[in-house]
Design brief:
By secondary structure, this protein is mainly alpha-helical. The chain has one domain (4-81). It is built from 4 helices and no strands. The protein has helices spanning 4-31, 36-42, 45-63, 69-81. Helix 1 crosses helix 3 and helix 3 (45-63) runs antiparallel to helix 4 (69-81). The radius of gyration is 18 Å and the shape is elongated.
Length: 83
């Protein structure tokens, strides 16, 4: 059986997860609409790392499917170096 404090802490945790999920979704949507060097400055570091990892993984996976995949990966790496 849980006491009131434990229930409250579970609610706090649930709200934290919901908040991070919401901000991550917004960050993900803004990534494709904003220049990357500006986008990085507009979002919290945790969101930048997570969203960048999502896009990087998708781009590298797509690169493996094309003959010019190495070019795609090099372009991605150059974008990272320009930050």
């Amino acid at each position: 059986m849980q006491g009131m404090v434990e229930r409250w802490l579970l609610q706090v945790e649930e709200m934290m997860v919901d908040s991070v999920r919401k901000v991550l979704g917004e960050s993900h949507a803004a990534y494709s609409e904003t220049a990357r060097n500006m986008w990085v400055l507009e979002w919290p570091g945790q969101m930048v790392i997570c969203t960048s990892s999502i896009y990087w993984t998708a781009e590298v996976s797509d690169a493996f499917k094309t003959p010019s995949g190495v070019e795609v990966i090099n372009n991605n790496n150059n974008n990272n170096n320009n930050l």
